[in-house]
Predict the structure.
Amino acid sequence: MVRTVLGEIPANQMCNTSVHEHLITAEYFHTFLDKLEPHEFSQKECDFAIAELKLAKDAGMDTLIEVSAMADPRQLKYIAERSPVNIIASTGFYKNFSKEQQNFTAEQFRDHIVYENEKGLRGSGIMPGVIKIATFMPKLHPWEVRALFGAGMAQKITGLPMCVHSATGTRYQQYIIEAAGANMEKVYFSHMESPTDREGRTVDMQVDYIIDTMERGSYVSFNGFVAPEYLSPEAIGELVIKVVERGYSHMLMLSLDHGLGWKRELAQTIADAQNLNMNRRTFAKLMTDVVPWLGNIGIADKDIKNMISLNAQKLFG
C-alpha cells in the first residue's frame, strides 16, 4: 500500500506518476522569491494549485509526489481533498537548512523523520509517503552529510521510499545513505540529467555514471524537461535514449520539478518569479509534451510506461 495525503491506496492505483514536484513552496524557495517569509494558510494559493492539478489530471496524470519537505500539512490536505490527482507528501529536509538544523546530529535528523512517520507531518496525522533530503553545493556541508546519514537511518527504520535531490556528487551521497543502512532499492536520485551533475564528464561517461548508480540498486529521475534555459531537449533526449538503449528504462523515472510559489498575494510559478521563458510550465506538460516527445525521438511505448508509471509503483509499493 502507498500512503497519500488522504490515506493509503494500492500501488497499482498510482498509474501515471510525476515523482518530483512542488505544490507548497513559498516558505522554502525564498531565495527565488525575494526572501518571502513564512505565511498563513491561504485559500487563494491552494485554489491555484488545485487548478493546476485539474489540468494535469485532464492530461492523464494520476499521482504527484510532493517533495518540498516540511510543507504545511493543512494546505496539502485542503488541496488533496479537492484534487483529482493523488498527492503523496514528504517528510525530511530541503536544501535551505536553518541555523538550528545546521547544528543537528545525524540522530536528530533521523528522529524528526521517524516522528513524522509515526505522528504525521508536524504531528498533524497527515502521513508522509516519502522521505526527501536535498543538498545544495557540489561540496557537501557537514550538516548535509549528517542529514543524508540521518535520512538513511530513518529509511531503514520506516521503510519509506526516499527522494534525494543530489544535483552533483550523486555517488558520494549514495554511499553515505547506503552506509547508514538504507535499502537502496527504495531510494531515487533526482537531477542526474543536470549539467551540474556532469562534473566534467562526457555524455557517454555520464550515462555510465547514471547506470552505475542504478546498478547499486537505486532509481534515477530526470527532471529537466520543458526547460530549455536549463537543459536543451537534444541534451536530455540523448541521455534518455542512451539509458534506454542500455536496457535501464526499468530504473528511470520522469518529472518536471515544477514549483508553485506566491508573492505579494499573487499566485505564480517559480519560473515566472525568475523571469524564465518556460512557455507556461504546468504539471500537465509531463503528459501533454514530454510523453509524446519521447515517442517522437524513438522511445518505445513499453519503456515510456516503465518511466511514467510502473517504476514508481514498484518503488512506492
In short: The chain has a mean pLDDT of 87.
